[in-house]
Design a protein that fits this description.
Elements (H helix, E strand, L loop, with lengths): L11 H8 L4 H14 L1 H11 L7 H11 L11 H16 L4 E3 L2 E3 L1 H13 L4
Antiparallel strand pairs: 1-2
Helix pairs in contact: 2-3, 4-5, 5-6
Length: 124
């Protein structure tokens, strides 16, 4: 009797191989579907391409929501969800992309520092 080998989870390499077979139209359609699927994808793409007034706003809102919940709405805190928003933003900057804050180009580390300052001194 032959042993059944369990397949490991797909990795970026597996995805990259499949993406390499797509033409431009198929890639645009895939990105469109990802964009429509979730607001986090929209925020990521807006931030990646520097669209909108403040590309950090979605991240700020997420951090504010989880670190300073609205007690009248019976919301709870979640440091892990706030940290995830910071991590997502950090991963974006690690890609080497530059963003602009109010039409001023800045490096990713500087933007992450600004977000940290916003979070720390929000109520001052």
């Amino acid at each position: 009797m032959a042993k059944h080998q369990s397949k490991s989870q797909p990795t970026w390499v597996d995805v990259k191989v499949k993406l390499a077979t797509f033409d431009r139209a198929a890639l645009l359609e895939l990105i469109h579907h990802l964009y429509a699927a979730h607001k986090d994808n929209q925020a990521f793409l807006h931030a990646r391409f520097g669209l909108g007034q403040d590309v950090l706003e979605p991240y700020k809102k997420t951090i504010d929501r989880w670190l300073w919940p609205d007690v009248f709405r019976n919301q709870d805190t979640s440091v892990s969800k706030a940290k995830q928003a910071i991590s997502d933003l950090g991963n974006h900057f690690k890609s080497g992309q530059r963003l602009s804050l109010q039409n001023r180009p800045m490096g990713g580390t500087r933007n992450l520092d600004l977000l940290s300052c916003h979070t720390l001194f929000r109520q001052v």
